[in-house]
Amino acid sequence: MAEPRAPTPSERPHGPPPGQPPGPHSEQPHGPQPEAFDRELSVRGVVGFLIGLAMLAVVTFAVMWLLFGALQRQQVAHDPAPPPMAEAREQRLPPEPRLQRDPRQDLAAMRTQENRVLGGYGWVDSERGIARVPVDSALAIVARAGLPVWPEPAPADSAAASNPAGASPGAAASRPAKGKAPRSW
Question: Counting beta carbons within 10 angstroms of the beta carbon of residue 164, is it exposed (0 to 12), middle (13 to 18) or buried (19 or more)?
């Protein structure tokens, strides 16, 4: 067994040293001495641990790098060759002359031109007096004036007039009467 050692001054209990009677002026500092803490934490041990941890991280990184390279080479060696039809699936440019160099820009230009036509006034056929108006204006005109009434064709005989061939029995009732404008919904 190990021999008992004498306590250091910081480890001694408060009071007079052993073998001396307590005196009126025997004052011991309260709590452990600062020198006791220096033995608890070793700077050399902490620095050594940090260096060892850094070396372990470097070694782990190197092993993972080598393992990744080996597994990648193994995967490439075991991959089958692409099937011959894979070449047919590749997107190739059409031969020259290419008529549409930038499809997105062409689509944007087409939509801009269509919006200009649909949103503006202009002549469709000036000789016959047919003009175009913006869609919003056309809807407002139809809502205000209603749709025109088209003349019905003359019936061939009275039986055909009451029920035209191929029409359902309720079809004649759903048509507006002559001279009346249809309802606008």
Answer: middle
